[in-house]
Specification:
alpha+beta, Rossmann fold, 2 domains
Length: about 300
């Protein structure tokens, strides 16, 4: 079987490797410039001697400018709209890999919202695309458990490894597989805004803040807060029990120690330990900022 991939994501690499063992990868469509240019992906493709097809050149010259003798297209971490003239040119269509339950988590950031909403599992959806976003015909779903404290990056990498094997199995039985039409989600979840990424210490419970932090690491740079008048991002936290002395409002540091780190009280008056933070371009641990003089009763803000 001849396959053309559409991707801008390193998460497609395990699938490309896996399918390349038993099928022919005719080419990989990606972007060679702009914000979606991925030098790591390009380096892998060049080392693997796989043909690289520039999406922007296709948009300019038309699909007819490249080979169309492939059997199926696979879209995996590709943010551009694949037009009907392209997906209909494949005898078997274009199969999209979507890290989220469809149609519930239709949209460009399903993994973020799945984690933020504290879902117990991630659904990997495999569907043949049509003219609508994240719609068409569902051909398979794979549910994988989300481990406690698992961040965006680790979950995505784990799902990518699983997807490669599942794609290989699916391609072997595409002619007989059952297809279920997907409803179009008219209220798709968008990419998270700065407001979505910002911690509201007063309103959010400790588990909700932990979920937000996990959902934003590293794909969105961490959950946003302010401290001493400057913005910083929190990359990792963990639940903690603190025998605090005194009355503290949410967002207040209730314990700070160079050996144990920094502990903050949340909207439900449970505490989180701040493990890893990013400020002024520096990745730093909670223990380190405690050693640098962060004190009890100092506050984080929204």
């Amino acid at each position: 079987m001849k396959i053309i991939f559409f991707t801008q994501s390193n998460w497609s690499i395990p699938a490309i490797i896996e399918l390349g063992k038993t099928h022919e990868i005719s080419g990989v469509v990606t972007q060679l410039q702009g914000p979606n240019f991925n030098p790591q992906l390009i380096g892998f493709l060049e080392q693997s001697n796989l043909p690289i097809i520039d999406w922007d050149q296709i948009s300019k010259d038309g699909w007819a400018s490249i080979s169309k003798d492939s059997d199926i297209g696979i879209s995996f971490g590709f943010s551009k709209k694949i037009k009907e003239e392209i997906f209909s040119s494949f005898p078997m269509g274009v199969l999209n890999v979507h890290f989220g339950k469809l149609p519930k988590y239709a949209g460009p950031a399903p993994l973020f919202w799945t984690l933020k909403n504290q879902e117990p599992t991630l659904t990997i959806s495999f569907h043949l695309i049509d003219q609508d976003w994240d719609a068409g015909d569902l051909v398979y779903e794979e549910d994988i458990p989300i481990f406690p404290g698992e961040p965006f990056g680790l979950l995505g990498a784990r799902a990518a490894q699983i997807s490669g094997g599942k794609l290989n199995t699916l391609l072997g039985r595409m002619d007989s597989i059952q297809r279920t039409p997907l409803k179009v989600n008219s209220h798709q979840l968008k990419r998270p805004t700065e407001l979505d990424l910002t911690i509201d210490w007063k309103e959010l419970k400790a588990n909700e803040i932990e979920a937000l932090v996990n959902a934003s690491n590293p794909g969105y740079g961490g959950a946003i807060t302010t401290f001493r008048g400057s913005q910083l991002k929190i990359l990792e936290v963990s639940p903690a029990e603190v025998n605090e002395v005194g009355i503290f409002s949410p967002g207040t540091i209730v314990y700070s120690d160079p050996n144990y780190g920094v502990f903050v009280i949340c909207g439900d008056y449970n505490c989180l330990r701040l493990n890893i933070l990013q400020l002024e371009g520096t990745i730093i641990t909670g223990q380190k900022i405690a050693a640098l003089g962060v004190r009890v009763n100092e506050k984080f803000g929204s």
